[in-house]
Amino acid sequence: MTRELLALTAEDGAGVDGAFYLRSGAPPSTALVLMHPTVSFLHHYALIPLARRGYGALGLNSRFAGNEAQLLMEQVVLDLAAGVAELRERGFERVVLVGNSGGGALAAFYQAQAEKPVPGLPRADALIILNAHRGRPQVLTAWLDPSVTDESDPLSVDPALDMFERRNGPPYRPDFVERYRAAQKARNLRVTAWARERLESAGDQAFVVHRTAADLRFLDLTLDPSDRVVGTYWGPDVRAANYAAGGLGRFSTVRSWLSQWGLDTSPVAAEPSLARCHAPMLFIQGTADQGIFPSDAQALFEAASAEDKQLRWIPGGSHYFLGQPDLQREVYDLIEGWLTARGMPAAR
């Protein structure tokens, strides 16, 4: 097994880091690309196992890896394009995007642009959507705490919309869920309207978004039922995660908010992107994921326009299958079997 650290250059001149894994003696055939907008995927758990099976496996970092606060999705697409182009230049006949977690919406957005086609964005031959969110604006809105009454005060609370107020639940009544979801959307739109006005009047600036781990499904397992346990990716104490100093979208710039978090400004929602993609698609979802729920995976699958698409469930699978080596192998088996059946085999 070889690992080659890559220093690539995006079309606009930005530097992009990658780690390319390949089994020694494996001729170029099919390569897989894994990339997240802000999380480093250079050591993603699937890279070495997939390379051992004979695939070229590229873990790619965007220019914003570790710098979520300034992320611009329109530039991240150029970073992904640099990785796809590199694999084409290395002679790989097929290139497949593996959109894991927040990388799912990115892969779909990229492919939708590449299929137009857009110059400088080489299209991929297939998409694998693995435990993927519906998009950065969508997941943040689903996690926003709508009980915040003052954006400058992390402790401000409207008890009528507080998921931690015992009289509200859990379990949460349907009328409360409806009001809660509407208020979450309204909060996103308020912040977006402020960000748009601020950018126009004063230019870019940094700001804080308090309490962003408040999805009702974290506490109420009767909502969107699955195999998950109570809690978030950060542990079982949902209130602590919600009030923590760090969290999803906690720090942002005005320009970045409009690009990645605004419901009515960000271009990177997974469902409309998938509707514009026609390459074969495989959707894989673990049923114990604490942040991606059955309705999310089903919505992504139904949104896809591809004639060739499949949705496969991994019973008991968590978000990254940590401590679940058998389930990880099941994922690799699914990927290998699905690609081979479509003329995209690993080198043997």
SSE topology:
Elements: E1 2-9, E2 15-22, E3 30-36, H1 47-52, E4 56-61, H2 73-89, E5 94-101, H3 103-114, E6 126-132, H4 136-143, H5 174-202, E7 206-208, H6 238-243, E8 251-253, H7 254-260, H8 270-275, E9 281-286, H9 294-303, E10 309-314, H10 325-341
Parallel strand pairs: 3-4, 3-5, 5-6, 6-9, 9-10
Antiparallel strand pairs: 1-2, 2-4, 7-8
In short:
The chain has 348 residues and is an alpha/beta fold.
Tell me what portion of residues adopts beta-strand conformation: 15-25%
Order of helices and strands: EEEHEHEHEHHEHEHHEHEH
Low-confidence stretches: none
Shape: globular
SS-based class: alpha/beta
Radius of gyration: 20 Å
Number of E strands? 10
CATH superfamily of the largest domain: Alpha/Beta hydrolase fold, catalytic domain
* Strand order in space, largest sheet: 1-2-4-3-5-6-9-10
Question: Can you walk me through this structure?
Answer:
- Strands 1-2-4-3-5-6-9-10 form an eight-stranded mixed beta sheet, sandwiched between helices.
- The model has no long low-confidence stretch (mean pLDDT 97).
- 34% of the residues lie in helices and 18% in strands.
- The chain has two domains: 208 residues, Rossmann fold (3-Layer(aba) Sandwich); 123 residues, no CATH class.
- The protein starts with a strand and ends in a 7-residue tail after the last helix.
- It has ten helices and ten strands.
- By secondary structure, it is of the alpha/beta class.
